[in-house]
Design goal:
Helix 3 (about 40-55) crosses helix 12 (about 255-265) and helix 6 packs parallel to helix 7. Helix content is about 40%, strand content about 15%. Helix 11 (about 230-235) links the parallel strand 9 (about 215) and strand 10 (about 240-245). The chain starts with a helix and ends with a helix. It is α/β, with parallel strands linked by helices and about 270 residues long. It has one domain: Aldolase class I (TIM Barrel, Alpha-Beta Barrel).
Length: about 270
Amino acid sequence: MVTGLGSRFDTIVESLGPLCVGIDPSADALRAAGLSDSAEGVLEFGRAILAASVSRVGIVKPQVAYFERFGARGIGSLEMIIREAREVGLAVIADAKRGDIGSTMDGYADAWLGHGPLHSDALTVNPYLGFDALEPAFSRASIHGATVFVLSATSNSNAEQLQRATISGKSLSALVARFARERTGKDNTVGVVVGATRGLAESGVTEADLDGLLILAPGFGAQGASLSDLSTIFGAASTRVIPSVSRSVLNDGIDNISRSIDRHRKEMGL
């Protein structure tokens, strides 16, 4: 079995760079691609992105919500995308943003980081119910060399109203990063999500807060952040950043995703 993202990160970066391509089959994206808004459409869409990603990037990130909306058949399509991605050596970040307590969190962890059909190399999670509540996911990630990316400083509108709230003089986003640093191991078990559409100071975190952590950074491409500015945005932490692009890889149409990915890679100097 292919080991998880955390234990493979350095190898992926050395061979292909850190760029991550999102798989976001929204109704608008499917329509633009000339595909049906259905479980079959999301499968065809996902496979087109996988085909273009092989040998160009090492990481893909399916947005689970766009598959879930079709119920069991949509989840079946997601299972196939995850399996096929891993079969060709791509690391999969399941963008599911799960987060709960006790046996419920254990169930989520087993679903996404266990041995089942949704088994992925990394998972995004929400810490709002408590950082320690995510321990079942951390434990499974440790076993499989996977990474759990905890939401720290997202780039969505008004997020800072909550994420920059302070506790003992530290922003909530900085506290999440601190907890992640304390829990992560040598295999990058715990990372953080930090949006790229605003500077670290605006997000309530510093380079020191992110020291040693893997950082999943959405917000590049269609959301406004430029890949060429990655080091400016993240400073010393930039060597550990996984920049994610989704909608912008479709700018040239579904038949030219490979060309779009090549353009993004060039913007990063890859």
